[in-house]
Amino acid sequence: MSLRVLLVDDGMADRLAVSRALAKDPDMQWEVVPMSNAEDALAYLEGNAVDAMLLDYHLPGMNGVTLLQKVTELGLPRVPAVVVLTGSGNERVAVEAMKAGAQDYLVKETFSPERLRISLRTAVDTVLMTRELEDRRLRAERAETAAREALAVRDELFSLATHDLKGPLQIMTLNAQVLRRQIPTAAMTPALETRLGHIVRAAHRMGELIDHFLEVTRGQERPLKREPLDLLAMVRGKVRELEANASRHHFVLEVPEGRDFTGEWDAHALERVLENLMGNAVKYSAAGSTVTVRLTVEDGDAQQFVLLAVTDQGIGIPAADLPFVFERFHRGRNVSRDVSGSGVGLASARRMVELHGGSLAVRSVEGQGSTFTVRLPRGIALPTESVRSTPEQLAP
């Protein structure tokens, strides 16, 4: 490695001695550019880059510290490392040199060639380290600025997108409501009334999901609204809804008799969880297969838990994908491109469950099906950020 050092000293003997000392450096190759006055040195620096400077303090015209200040005013892209040399041991000179930007100060009568080489190498290393830290800081600032700008653009795009998505939903809702009023009473069968009701509720629900999506992307996730909730009633309602809309699947609800399935939970959050798990069970299983929903109660040491399990007979999850099944934007490698999905549903479902202080786990075998189990504390439990559900592979 070769470094260029500008040596500014009006004494020929001193210039020769320093050049010889640097030529004998076993660890570094120095290209010495000798100058006898400050004016020539400044002129040289305007057109040439150097890695280091050795400046004699006592120079004709201006001293070494003044020269160093002039070098700083040049605004060089890369300020060189600087060691100031003097024949005087005056401490005031040393303080002036260091304030002006020098990395070290040597008294000519006392330093050895080895001390000179060490001082110059250390000065260069210090400047290189300072440059690297500054470069990292600037890169970090640029990255942070770019990230803020990207987030602002993203938020704006999401706001526009959610606004545009709500337009068709409002049209669907209004038309369904108009149909309910305009269809003669004699022609309004219970099945038709039910389906129109499904359209209105689904449109309202989609509007809520769009609002939630926008909140989450902006980091404005709303806190849970805990209220007494009968989970069994919610599950029964979703099963009936899916039986009407996904008639090609068979649904089974397994519930032990005489058990209570109420708790202090957020109804909207658990509805999203249930819709995601049951929707996936239908999406990833063939027509004619069975989707089983089980509710059970588990007694803990200090808390009672309600367990909700959704089991399908679908394509299952490959073993290699199980550790990542709850990560955002991750989809199993065996999922066909024709099957729609963003890969965020399970991540959002787990987040909702964990906010309740519960857990969401999966057991699956590729080609046989999957079981997703929600474990909810019946009362209020603080979520544990450090604990995450660990997917387990079901033994064949």
Automatic annotation (TrEMBL):
The lineage of its organism: Bacteria, Pseudomonadati, Myxococcota, Myxococcia, Myxococcales. Gene3D superfamilies: 1.10.287.130, 3.40.50.2300, Histidine kinase-like ATPase, C-terminal domain. Keywords: Kinase, Phosphoprotein, Transferase. It catalyses: ATP + protein L-histidine = ADP + protein N-phospho-L-histidine. Residues 4-123 form the Response regulatory domain. Residues 160-380 form the Histidine kinase domain. It is an enzyme of class 2 (transferase). Pfam families: HATPase_c, HisKA, Response_reg. Transmembrane segments: none annotated. One of its GO terms (molecular function) is phosphorelay sensor kinase activity. SMART domains: HATPase_c (SM00387), HisKA (SM00388), REC (SM00448). It comes from Corallococcus interemptor. This is histidine kinase. InterPro entries: CheY-like_superfamily (IPR011006), HATPase_C_sf (IPR036890), HATPase_dom (IPR003594), His_kinase_dom (IPR005467), HisK_dim/P_dom (IPR003661), HisK_dim/P_sf (IPR036097), Sig_transdc_His_kin-like_C (IPR004358), Sig_transdc_resp-reg_receiver (IPR001789). The modification 4-aspartylphosphate is found at residue 56. Its EC number is 2.7.13.3.
